[in-house]
Write a structure and sequence with these properties.
The chain has twelve helices and ten strands. It is α+β, with helices and mostly antiparallel strands.
Length: 357
Amino acid sequence: MINEFTGDDTLKNKNPTFHLAYEGADLPCQAANALGRDVLSAGSDIQLDTHVKNVLSNKIILSWILHYTIKAFGRLSPEEIIPYIEGTPWIGFVPVFPSVDPTGSPESYSEKITGSATEHNVPGEGIVCYDINFHANLPCPPQKKPVKIIINIEAQKNFYPGYRIESRGLFYCSRLISAQLDREFTNSHYNDIKKVYSIWLCMNAPNYIGNAVSEYRISKHDLLPGVPNRKQAYDKQSLILICLNEKASDGNPLTGMLNILLSTRLDYKTKKERLKKDYGISMSKELQEGVKKMCNYSEYVLETGRRKGRREGFETVAVRMLKMKLYEDEEILRLSGISRSRLSRLKKLITAPPKKS
């Protein structure tokens, strides 16, 4: 049983299948791999953003994002980009990065990134935690030394969470650069600073924006001409916003794919079929499991109320939707069937500080 307001829960272990049980309904989840175990270990009150981060960390999804957002990768297909993620490119069939086995076969690619440190603690600057943090190497001729870049991916449920995402994104870029001291460069060797990309996936973008992608970067403007334009010296950070609105008809293949992948309205089977048919993405084992968990959690929000068929069940639906922070009030009212006054009371209960024992 779960207390919707305190988050206390009961997790039944029926090995090898765990059951997430609350409010009288069981949601079976197969723990067939590390992703499944990670999801289950967080308990039945796991937040949707955990699923999203696990799904986005699959290399095929990351390669799609890189293909459409970073110019150097634009001439490669998403499949061709995968070897450049988290390591140096393959030369011939000799693996030179640790995410593949010594056989060098294409099948030996790790389907998910291991990731760089997702927590940066810079003295005097505090701690910043990233959703996904990894490095890649830009495509280059075999005779040239690979150019390493650092990439941060953030999944944002709301387009305006009380601050401008652009401001937070630029802060993350700055931290990704300052954190390179004694990691990527030492002392005054500033020429060794690696370019950083902070890419923000903003779900539920307002209708006036729809599906859109924008990049913010440093450029040179001459107030009095004469200084050479050494772009490689200052082109060290790039902030990219990917705004997603699955109800909008505009967009490009990237926003279309991500809207299907991250949809809270489409079931698992529909996602699997459309990703394969429309975008040629066949789900690997880990991507498949991650999408299942993501879909199961979203669908459960509504199923709880349907199965109970009484006020307490519908209130559970409303509370779940509020805690997911993905739905507007009107949509919560429509799907849960509770009154507006009751919704206001539930919002106050959720945001109220816990009582001291």
